[in-house]
Recover the amino acids of this structure.
Protein backbone atom coordinates (compact mmCIF):
# COMPACT_ATOMS: atom_id res chain seq x y z
CA UNK A 1 0.00 0.00 0.00
CA UNK A 2 2.78 2.38 0.95
CA UNK A 3 4.69 1.79 -2.29
CA UNK A 4 1.49 1.98 -4.36
CA UNK A 5 0.68 5.39 -2.88
CA UNK A 6 4.12 6.60 -3.89
CA UNK A 7 3.84 5.38 -7.49
CA UNK A 8 0.09 5.90 -7.99
CA UNK A 9 -0.95 8.78 -5.72
CA UNK A 10 -4.10 9.56 -7.72
CA UNK A 11 -5.74 6.16 -7.40
CA UNK A 12 -8.44 5.45 -4.84
CA UNK A 13 -7.81 2.39 -2.70
CA UNK A 14 -9.47 -0.25 -0.58
CA UNK A 15 -7.18 -1.57 2.15
CA UNK A 16 -8.49 -4.89 3.47
CA UNK A 17 -6.91 -6.26 6.64
CA UNK A 18 -8.18 -9.69 7.66
CA UNK A 19 -7.87 -8.77 11.31
CA UNK A 20 -10.20 -11.53 12.51
CA UNK A 21 -7.92 -14.29 11.24
CA UNK A 22 -4.33 -13.06 11.36
CA UNK A 23 -1.68 -14.27 11.60
CA UNK A 24 -1.94 -16.57 8.56
CA UNK A 25 1.61 -17.88 8.70
CA UNK A 26 1.12 -20.60 11.32
CA UNK A 27 -2.41 -21.76 10.40
CA UNK A 28 -3.35 -24.81 8.27
CA UNK A 29 -3.20 -24.12 4.56
CA UNK A 30 -6.85 -24.93 3.77
CA UNK A 31 -8.11 -22.73 6.59
CA UNK A 32 -6.06 -19.79 5.30
CA UNK A 33 -7.23 -20.48 1.75
CA UNK A 34 -10.84 -20.13 2.88
CA UNK A 35 -10.10 -16.76 4.50
CA UNK A 36 -8.36 -15.55 1.33
CA UNK A 37 -11.34 -16.37 -0.89
CA UNK A 38 -13.77 -14.73 1.55
CA UNK A 39 -11.66 -11.59 1.45
CA UNK A 40 -11.37 -11.65 -2.35
CA UNK A 41 -15.13 -12.12 -2.76
CA UNK A 42 -15.79 -9.05 -0.63
CA UNK A 43 -13.18 -6.96 -2.46
CA UNK A 44 -14.56 -8.03 -5.85
CA UNK A 45 -18.03 -6.88 -4.76
CA UNK A 46 -16.65 -3.34 -4.38
CA UNK A 47 -16.05 -3.00 -8.12
CA UNK A 48 -12.25 -2.89 -8.09
CA UNK A 49 -10.19 -2.75 -11.29
CA UNK A 50 -7.23 -4.66 -9.82
CA UNK A 51 -6.37 -6.61 -6.68
CA UNK A 52 -2.97 -6.69 -5.02
CA UNK A 53 -2.47 -9.58 -2.62
CA UNK A 54 -0.13 -7.78 -0.24
CA UNK A 55 0.77 -10.94 1.63
CA UNK A 56 3.45 -13.46 0.67
CA UNK A 57 1.62 -16.30 2.40
CA UNK A 58 -1.70 -15.60 0.68
CA UNK A 59 0.05 -15.24 -2.68
CA UNK A 60 1.82 -18.57 -2.36
CA UNK A 61 -1.40 -20.36 -1.41
CA UNK A 62 -4.03 -18.87 -3.69
CA UNK A 63 -2.92 -16.45 -6.41
CA UNK A 64 -3.31 -18.86 -9.34
CA UNK A 65 -6.78 -20.00 -8.29
CA UNK A 66 -7.91 -16.42 -7.69
CA UNK A 67 -6.81 -15.47 -11.20
CA UNK A 68 -8.99 -18.23 -12.61
CA UNK A 69 -12.04 -17.01 -10.69
CA UNK A 70 -11.95 -13.26 -11.38
CA UNK A 71 -11.61 -11.29 -14.60
CA UNK A 72 -9.65 -8.32 -13.22
CA UNK A 73 -5.86 -8.34 -12.80
CA UNK A 74 -4.63 -9.99 -9.59
CA UNK A 75 -1.07 -9.27 -8.51
CA UNK A 76 0.75 -11.26 -5.91
CA UNK A 77 3.88 -10.54 -3.93
CA UNK A 78 6.74 -12.95 -3.36
CA UNK A 79 10.09 -12.83 -1.56
CA UNK A 80 12.64 -10.86 -3.60
CA UNK A 81 14.97 -13.86 -3.91
CA UNK A 82 16.07 -13.23 -7.50
CA UNK A 83 17.50 -9.71 -6.97
CA UNK A 84 19.01 -10.84 -3.68
CA UNK A 85 20.87 -13.70 -5.38
CA UNK A 86 22.04 -11.36 -8.14
CA UNK A 87 23.46 -8.98 -5.54
CA UNK A 88 25.34 -11.72 -3.68
CA UNK A 89 26.73 -13.73 -6.59
CA UNK A 90 30.51 -13.44 -6.69
CA UNK A 91 30.75 -11.87 -3.23
CA UNK A 92 31.07 -15.04 -1.10
CA UNK A 93 28.06 -13.82 0.84
CA UNK A 94 24.78 -15.63 1.38
CA UNK A 95 21.12 -14.61 1.12
CA UNK A 96 18.83 -14.92 4.14
CA UNK A 97 15.08 -15.03 3.48
CA UNK A 98 12.86 -14.14 6.44
CA UNK A 99 9.16 -15.00 6.14
CA UNK A 100 6.35 -16.92 7.80
CA UNK A 101 6.63 -20.68 8.13
CA UNK A 102 3.69 -21.21 5.76
CA UNK A 103 5.30 -19.12 3.01
CA UNK A 104 8.57 -21.01 3.37
CA UNK A 105 6.83 -24.41 3.23
CA UNK A 106 4.97 -23.73 0.00
CA UNK A 107 6.13 -25.28 -3.26
CA UNK A 108 5.86 -21.86 -4.91
CA UNK A 109 8.68 -20.58 -2.71
CA UNK A 110 10.85 -23.66 -3.27
CA UNK A 111 10.36 -23.40 -7.02
CA UNK A 112 11.42 -19.76 -6.88
CA UNK A 113 14.61 -20.59 -5.00
CA UNK A 114 15.45 -23.52 -7.28
CA UNK A 115 15.05 -21.31 -10.34
CA UNK A 116 17.66 -18.73 -9.26
CA UNK A 117 19.91 -20.25 -6.59
CA UNK A 118 22.56 -21.90 -8.77
CA UNK A 119 25.29 -21.71 -6.13
CA UNK A 120 23.28 -22.78 -3.07
CA UNK A 121 23.58 -19.46 -1.25
CA UNK A 122 19.94 -18.99 -0.16
CA UNK A 123 18.93 -19.82 3.40
CA UNK A 124 15.59 -19.15 5.07
CA UNK A 125 14.20 -18.64 8.53
CA UNK A 126 10.57 -18.37 9.71
CA UNK A 127 9.80 -15.42 11.99
CA UNK A 128 6.10 -15.81 12.79
CA UNK A 129 6.54 -13.87 16.02
CA UNK A 130 7.25 -10.66 14.12
CA UNK A 131 3.75 -10.77 12.64
CA UNK A 132 2.30 -10.81 16.14
CA UNK A 133 4.44 -7.85 17.17
CA UNK A 134 3.24 -5.91 14.13
CA UNK A 135 -0.42 -6.75 14.68
CA UNK A 136 -0.03 -5.40 18.22
CA UNK A 137 1.64 -2.24 16.83
CA UNK A 138 4.70 -3.07 18.91
CA UNK A 139 7.80 -2.09 16.94
CA UNK A 140 9.94 -1.23 19.93
CA UNK A 141 13.53 -2.34 20.11
CA UNK A 142 12.99 -3.42 23.72
CA UNK A 143 10.41 -6.02 22.62
CA UNK A 144 11.70 -7.07 19.23
CA UNK A 145 15.47 -7.21 19.65
CA UNK A 146 15.50 -10.02 22.27
CA UNK A 147 13.13 -12.06 20.09
CA UNK A 148 15.33 -11.65 17.00
CA UNK A 149 18.53 -12.40 18.89
CA UNK A 150 16.99 -15.64 20.10
CA UNK A 151 15.78 -16.61 16.61
CA UNK A 152 19.16 -15.77 15.04
CA UNK A 153 21.24 -17.39 17.79
CA UNK A 154 22.24 -20.37 15.64
CA UNK A 155 23.31 -18.23 12.64
CA UNK A 156 26.48 -16.33 11.84
CA UNK A 157 24.89 -13.09 10.63
CA UNK A 158 28.19 -11.90 9.16
CA UNK A 159 27.75 -14.43 6.35
CA UNK A 160 24.79 -12.66 4.77
CA UNK A 161 25.10 -9.98 2.12
CA UNK A 162 21.37 -9.58 1.48
CA UNK A 163 18.40 -10.07 3.78
CA UNK A 164 15.05 -10.61 2.08
CA UNK A 165 11.96 -9.53 4.01
CA UNK A 166 9.45 -12.09 2.75
CA UNK A 167 6.49 -10.78 4.73
CA UNK A 168 4.85 -7.39 4.31
CA UNK A 169 4.85 -6.88 8.08
CA UNK A 170 8.62 -7.07 8.31
CA UNK A 171 9.75 -3.69 6.85
CA UNK A 172 8.56 -2.02 10.06
CA UNK A 173 11.40 -3.78 11.85
CA UNK A 174 14.20 -2.61 9.55
CA UNK A 175 15.75 -0.36 12.26
CA UNK A 176 16.02 -3.40 14.55
CA UNK A 177 17.39 -5.64 11.78
CA UNK A 178 20.10 -3.08 11.10
CA UNK A 179 21.36 -3.46 14.67
CA UNK A 180 22.01 -7.16 14.06
CA UNK A 181 23.45 -7.38 10.55
CA UNK A 182 26.66 -5.90 9.16
CA UNK A 183 26.44 -2.35 7.84
CA UNK A 184 27.08 -3.57 4.29
CA UNK A 185 24.21 -6.09 4.37
CA UNK A 186 21.33 -4.93 2.18
CA UNK A 187 17.76 -5.41 3.39
CA UNK A 188 15.15 -5.68 0.61
CA UNK A 189 11.51 -6.64 0.06
CA UNK A 190 9.26 -7.28 -2.92
CA UNK A 191 6.88 -4.38 -2.28
CA UNK A 192 8.37 -1.89 -4.74
CA UNK A 193 8.41 -4.39 -7.60
CA UNK A 194 4.77 -5.29 -6.99
CA UNK A 195 3.66 -1.64 -6.96
CA UNK A 196 5.69 -0.99 -10.13
CA UNK A 197 3.96 -3.93 -11.81
CA UNK A 198 0.57 -2.58 -10.74
CA UNK A 199 1.32 0.75 -12.37
CA UNK A 200 2.45 -0.97 -15.57
CA UNK A 201 -0.74 -3.07 -15.75
CA UNK A 202 -3.05 -0.10 -15.20
CA UNK A 203 -1.18 1.91 -17.83
CA UNK A 204 -1.37 -0.93 -20.35
CA UNK A 205 -5.14 -1.22 -19.77
CA UNK A 206 -5.59 2.57 -19.97
CA UNK A 207 -7.06 2.53 -16.45
CA UNK A 208 -5.01 5.13 -14.61
CA UNK A 209 -7.23 7.41 -12.53
CA UNK A 210 -7.15 11.06 -11.54
CA UNK A 211 -8.64 10.40 -8.12
CA UNK A 212 -7.61 11.80 -4.77
CA UNK A 213 -5.64 8.92 -3.25
CA UNK A 214 -8.48 8.19 -0.85
CA UNK A 215 -8.14 4.96 1.16
CA UNK A 216 -11.11 3.05 2.54
CA UNK A 217 -9.97 0.72 5.32
CA UNK A 218 -11.73 -2.55 6.11
CA UNK A 219 -11.25 -5.11 8.87
CA UNK A 220 -12.45 -8.49 7.60
CA UNK A 221 -15.30 -6.88 5.63
CA UNK A 222 -16.26 -4.20 8.17
CA UNK A 223 -15.40 -0.62 7.30
CA UNK A 224 -13.08 1.07 9.76
CA UNK A 225 -14.58 4.36 10.91
CA UNK A 226 -13.18 5.01 14.37
CA UNK A 227 -10.64 7.80 14.31
CA UNK A 228 -8.13 6.14 16.60
CA UNK A 229 -7.64 3.19 14.24
CA UNK A 230 -7.49 5.41 11.15
CA UNK A 231 -4.88 7.58 12.85
CA UNK A 232 -2.88 4.44 13.65
CA UNK A 233 -2.90 3.37 9.99
CA UNK A 234 -1.67 6.74 8.81
CA UNK A 235 1.03 6.65 11.48
CA UNK A 236 2.21 3.35 10.01
CA UNK A 237 2.54 4.94 6.56
CA UNK A 238 4.56 7.78 8.07
CA UNK A 239 6.86 5.25 9.75
CA UNK A 240 7.66 3.71 6.38
CA UNK A 241 8.28 7.17 4.91
CA UNK A 242 10.96 7.71 7.54
CA UNK A 243 12.84 4.45 6.86
Amino acid sequence: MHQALRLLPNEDYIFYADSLHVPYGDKPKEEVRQYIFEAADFIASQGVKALVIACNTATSIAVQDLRQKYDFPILGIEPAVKPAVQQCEGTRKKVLVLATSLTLKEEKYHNLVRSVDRHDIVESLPLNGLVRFAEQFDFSEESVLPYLRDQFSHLDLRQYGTVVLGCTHFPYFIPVFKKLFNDDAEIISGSFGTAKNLKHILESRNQLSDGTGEISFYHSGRKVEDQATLTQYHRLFRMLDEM
Remarks:
- The two ends are 15 Å apart (CA to CA).
- Residues 29-44 form the longest helix (16 residues).
